[in-house]
Amino acid sequence: MRAIQIKAYVKGPEELQVSELPDPVPAPDQYLVGIRAAATNFFDLLQIRGKYQHQPPLPWIAGMEFAGVILQTPSRPPSDGGPRFKVGDRVFGASQGGYATKVAAKEDVLRPVPAGWSFADAAGLFVTAPTSYAALVTRANVQRGEYVLVHAAAGGVGLAAVQIAKALGATVIATASTTAKLSVARSFGADHGINYSDASWPSQVRALTPKGRGVDVVYDPVGLIGPSLKCIAWAGRLLVIGFAAGAIESLPLNKVLLKNVSVVGLHWGPYAAHDPAATGAVWEGLYKLIEAGRFRGTSFSAREFIGLKGVPAALKALGARETWGKVVVTVPEQSGASKL
Predict the structure, then answer these.
(1) Nearest-angstrom CA–CA distance, 263 and 217
(2) With contact defined as beta carbons under 8 Å apart, do 98 and 122 qualify?
(3) pLDDT value, residue 336
(4) Among residues 115, 112, 64, which one has the least CA distance to residue 90?
(5) Cβ proximity of 332 and 339 under 8 Å
(6) Which pLDDT value is given to residue 248?
């Protein structure tokens, strides 16, 4: 197979190279998947530099999210029955080694590609969609008629949050750094858009709410909880999703007390271990939204990244914040001679 293998940490994605490697040998409880699309993530940029909290021992294959076709089923099926997928099934998932033409993965990190979805759209679904659904539904319990502020609304988790909040019946106020990104957010359902490069954005948000009371829920993957306290309603909920801006905030807790608000964190990854029932409910809810046409793929379509040789450019564009949604690399099917 072909893959982007990390033998030593690099300074940036431009140093990544595609190598010819032996095919992965699945463990008895793993599937072998032929990858057709691989999604990029900000943590990939950290991991290839050796700066992420989860670093596999060298050498390892970069990438995490993917979509593709089942090539081989487990030799030891799960104890609760036979394998869920058969050879030829279209799946998406997340497992270390996504920047490759093949990957071995356990059943619990694979999901069926929704009917009618492309591999490119499915490749970017595994992390962003459940993160946003669990935050807005499980943690914040968003109700019809509420006002939801989504920061970085044109990003991967942002566009997922916009769609889910709209499906729940909320009025969505989107923030982003450019007019073009605000247009993208509106195209996915946002009711209003505000450029948060303007320091007056909290007052602009309040002005869009009934009697200037503020929003009921703030969805923040950036690190804007502090200033968002200026536009949160009484007894509102602030969702801490991430710190894309780089700094981890220190909050004025007197304002949390005086406004009677809740600051709620959401780290989706550990749910599988700590609350597997909630994990199932989240995916069930997402598939219902997809089947109802209320949630669509968010893969970046303004530029194509084709073949594993396109991964460095895709990661560079992602890191420069030149993109929106999920930046996905399509991986052509190998037949005969190897393809990059």
Answers:
(1) 10
(2) no
(3) 47
(4) 112
(5) yes
(6) 85
Indicate the DSSP class of residue 333.
Answer: P
Residue 181 to residue 285: CA distance in whole angstroms: 27
134, two tokens: 């669990």
pLDDT in the model for residue 167: 98
- E strands along 23-89, which residues? 30-39, 60-61, 65-72
299: β partners: 326
Closest CA to 300 of 159, 178, 148: 159
255 token code pair: 């304002």
Distance separating alpha carbons of residues 102 and 253, to the nearest angstrom: 48
Give kind and range of the element (H or E) at residue 291.
helix 276-291
Pairwise CA distance, residues 94 & 109, whole Å:
6
Specify the pLDDT at position 250.
Answer: 87
- Kindly give the interhelix angle for 179-187 and 156-167, rounded to the nearest 10 degrees: 40
- What does the pLDDT look like over 177-235, one tens digit per residue? 999 999 999 999 999 999 999 999 999 999 999 999 999 999 999 999 999 999 999 99
CA distance 255 to 291: 41
Which of 167, 79, 78 is closest to 129 using CA atoms?
167
Q: Which of 142, 55, 71 is closest to 110 using CA atoms?
A: 71
Residues in the chain: 340
Regions of the chain with pLDDT less than 50:
336-339
Nearest to 49 by CA among 85, 16, 98: 16
Rounded Cα distance between 283 and 261, Å, is: 28
DSSP 157-189: HHHHHHHHHHHTT-EEEEEESSHHHHHHHHHTT
> Sign of the C-alpha dihedral, residues 325, 274, 288, 68?
positive
Contact of 281 with 124, CB cutoff 8 Å: no
Q: Give kind and range of the element (H or E) at residue 239.
A: strand 232-240
Record the tokens describing residue 186, joined without a space: 């509106």
- In this prediction, residue 204 carries a pLDDT of 98
Chain-centroid distance of CA 148 in Å reads 19
